[in-house]
Amino acid sequence: MNRPVPKITTGALPASRKVYASGTLHELRVPMREISVTDEAPLTVYDSSGPYTDPAATIDIAKGLPEVRGGWLQTRGEVEAYEGRAVTSADNGFAEGARLTPPFPAARDTLRATGDRAVTQLAYARAGIVTPEMEFVAIRENEGRAKAYSRDGDPMGANLPDLVTPEFVRDEIAAGRAIIPANINHRELEPMIIGRNFLVKINANIGNSAVTSSMEEEVEKMVWAIRWGADTVMDLSTGRNIHNIRDWILRNSPVPIGTVPLYQALEKVNGIAEDLTWEIYRDTLIEQAEQGVDYFTIHAGVRLHMIPMTAKRVTGIVSRGGSIMAKWCLHHHRESFLYEHFDEICDICRRYDVSFSLGDGLRPGSIADANDEAQFAELRTLGELTKIAWAKDCQVMIEGPGHVPMHKIKANMDEQLKHCHEAPFYTLGPLTTDIAPGYDHITSAIGAAMIGWFGTAMLCYVTPKEHLGLPDRDDVKTGVITYKLASHAADLAKGHPGAQARDDAISRARFDFRWEDQFNLGLDPDTAREMHDETMPKEAHKLAHFCSMCGPKFCSMKISHDIRAEAEKREGMAKMAEKYRDGGDLYMPADTVEEPAE
Amino acid sequence: MNRPVPKITTGALPASRKVYASGTLHELRVPMREISVTDEAPLTVYDSSGPYTDPAATIDIAKGLPEVRGGWLQTRGEVEAYEGRAVTSADNGFAEGARLTPPFPAARDTLRATGDRAVTQLAYARAGIVTPEMEFVAIRENEGRAKAYSRDGDPMGANLPDLVTPEFVRDEIAAGRAIIPANINHRELEPMIIGRNFLVKINANIGNSAVTSSMEEEVEKMVWAIRWGADTVMDLSTGRNIHNIRDWILRNSPVPIGTVPLYQALEKVNGIAEDLTWEIYRDTLIEQAEQGVDYFTIHAGVRLHMIPMTAKRVTGIVSRGGSIMAKWCLHHHRESFLYEHFDEICDICRRYDVSFSLGDGLRPGSIADANDEAQFAELRTLGELTKIAWAKDCQVMIEGPGHVPMHKIKANMDEQLKHCHEAPFYTLGPLTTDIAPGYDHITSAIGAAMIGWFGTAMLCYVTPKEHLGLPDRDDVKTGVITYKLASHAADLAKGHPGAQARDDAISRARFDFRWEDQFNLGLDPDTAREMHDETMPKEAHKLAHFCSMCGPKFCSMKISHDIRAEAEKREGMAKMAEKYRDGGDLYMPADTVEEPAE
Questions:
Q1: How many C-beta neighbours within 10 Å does residue B511 have?
Q2: B588 pLDDT exceeds 50?
Q3: What ipTM is given for this predicted complex?
Q4: Are residues B559 and A335, on separate chains, in Cβ contact within 8 Å?
Q5: Facing residues of A30 across strands?
Q6: Which residues of chain A does B435 touch, with a Cβ-Cβ cutoff of 8 Å?
Q7: What is the predicted pLDDT for the residue at A582?
Q8: Taking a C-beta distance cutoff of 8 angstroms, is the pair A457, A422 a contact?
Q9: pTM to 2 decimals?
Q10: I want to staple A503 with a disulfide (CB 3.0 to 4.6 A). Which of A4, A402, A518, B367 is the partner?
Q11: What are phi and psi of A371, to 5 degrees?
């Protein structure tokens, strides 16, 4: 090979070990992460990081991950191996020599459905079949719990059972309310579910651009993103070597990989949008489906008549795919080829179980454009396309905005529920103000947490680099942690029956000055520890009943402990509560206080 | 002097100049910041940064800022200069020699009200008087606008006029719905207003602890915090030299300074909470009022009978002041001396116009403790104390939580409105989950934006260091920018008539690839520029119609411009809209699609 194999980050997270839960219906083992906690039972949490955090796993990026699903597909049948399409120079943007990323070295079977059947999770769910993927995600969603931890929230119409069963999963998928993105050619996948009635998920975007980045960087970004909690990863590469980069990513990804096939199609016509054709696009879909891409973002809702609706917008069309399609439509004076050939796209997707992520090409890219005519016209079309896709047994989720001020966020959820038949919603933020470039992970975390609470199933992250440049590895981590906290805030608000366990564990640790436990239970133990150690670095400090915020005399938690000890010494707080409650009175006689006029 | 004068950050922000608007009723000039924008009118925005960003100002930290309000107080009269209380060694925590921070070198008059009158903005407002401070803030709130920029929001019961008038300000203060924290001994102050019907404000916390920091660092933190947008600053010092550090800060602060007098009182009794006495506390109030502290956080709502309500909490009492008072009460088996002597505290505050910030000593410090009995018992007491303070013409705001999951946030606003007679609400976040130490500026920005939308008047910032250590200068900036974006998101959602001007200006700049304008209009131009330049550093890149996120072929905004050009060439988008709307049809005949059962 021309180049060294990418260096990727491995090793367990602090105080954590990989544990596996077994299935009862199928042969499977579901990974979770167990965090040790001093003097308490360990806390088991959801784990998207794959074998990279399992010290028992042998990692070889040039070989790829084990085929978790290989046996399942063999047992299920209904698929055949075949000679896939040959890779062309155009697939890699005509890169050559030292500029061509080496192809992934280990060969895998290319599968497709036999005959004209659908091999989608939706088809199986409707047939009443509980697949191994469905059982896997059911176990995964329960995070090792035997019952609900707590029930305290406002689910806003969501239905969150105490424990998820495989049958519940099947029913949700059959109803179209959830999807398991799982291409039959992505057998390294550890399946996951996206739906309003499950844990809120997050997506991290990676991918090169013409200006920067490489395969090595992108594979590490994927591994890094899932280490910190990304549930899916989209490869949004727009530069050279799109095909080969994607192979390296897919063969090494335990999470679903999404793409926007239009980008590669555009590269094949040298960036001239007007030269796109249905044939080139179709070929790209098959190319990517054969590699194992789990979901395609397809901007089939950007229709010719909607484009003029964007004329008065402050920021026009901010979706890459949306703008490309709009350019094509206007130039050719024709309806979108994605819209016209949507049936045929479905026929491809159902053979491999590639899920649709119906793109929001007309999403608002500024506060001024939020909830405008163009945006909702497209949303209604996405609802129509959802029904067409479902009729072909294709799994579907719906993409959403964007830039939306807080008071307009609920309407987005309401409109999506109304027009898209409860298909899962997958938003980008939304950003709640435009005025903070450099901080858009935060402007959007606000909107994302809120819309996640209202029912959005997956939140696409935004990094600090939004609007400014391609995110690097540090930006990826910041974006992922930010969106993990936002999705967790949403789970808490919805009253997810497991969510509060982690908040309570970390708060107990905090109150008890178990500093290492506090760090280890947090979403980013390394950063928390570093920040603490900036001012209190010694080992002995980890036993201190204070930190540098307040020092020993002013630490409220230390004083709280003193208070409890004092109260116990005297008579116990409970008795005291009784005594003082009876005696407590406002000391000021009523007639000295002037009542304000009501 | 023993030590060098602190080095502080001066100089205009990029593309910005300081402008001043004159009063019509009084002699005053109100600072604002004017940002130049290429090919557009400059954008005028609110400016908390004081003379430090005015190149025409001479800054000498050892001399302090000019007495903006000196003439007003002289004209208004009703005050007398007197020999203030002598500074004692205890005031500085018994520091001596090289450890004693040098006193602020330039002397100022110490004023108090003559006789037993009240010289508060509330007293004047009730008497029908529009003070210079009221006119100042009215002009300030309008940010140079002549009329409303837009009206699009959900004010959630707030009353936001198109333009703020001095009379509107007077009425709001008289009703107790707003306060202008403005001690007559803080004459360097550029007055500002805190109230639900005005721009949402933010507070930054500074101050040393026993473990770390110094006067030089703290003065620079104050200057740095207001540069980035802090509307008030609290000096929460708990180490040595509290008195002298505060002097340096006050004499150089154009924004209101808040404190928690209990901290210094505790230092005077060597950190032994049980040794606190009303006399020591009273003396500390006078000491700080004479220096010019604009608002006191006073935890008079932590009453003896409430303390046992915290026994079952996961994180006990997390407020420093609240825990100190709880310890004192339990030890002495007595009602809080703050509560019992509240009348006398009012008598002191009304002589200097120190505003109350009624402390939330029993706020929840974890998700588990949110909205519990202790928290709301205290809130109801704060409502009672508000009426007592108002009866003495003292200005009041109410502090709030804390850690609150999203679904419980609205109830906090509702309860506060119900029990506290519309006094302004001033919350700390709230944090919407506990699980992200290192990122609590973000977990809390979510809650802060929401509760700001619901009616909270001021948001106390949280930095990345929360729970881990004392914030440094970088943390202060991150916290301020985060809270500026959150307060602005709240203003937008409320439909503040001026808010969207900045979002629209920056979005126009973004769409037009006016990179410098985009940076300059953002809350943190330096960081935005640096991030952009990481991958595209050349001057020529500032004219590029793309950035490294997408590169030249994939930039959606570039393509949007191409689309508009193409459409104009043909016939104009508007005509096109008409034509296509009539022709657009779902291409699939209805009978091929199976309608889902409703």
A1: 20
A2: no
A3: 0.95
A4: no
A5: A21
A6: 485, 488, 502-503, 506, 521-523
A7: 56
A8: no
A9: 0.95
A10: B367
A11: 60, 35
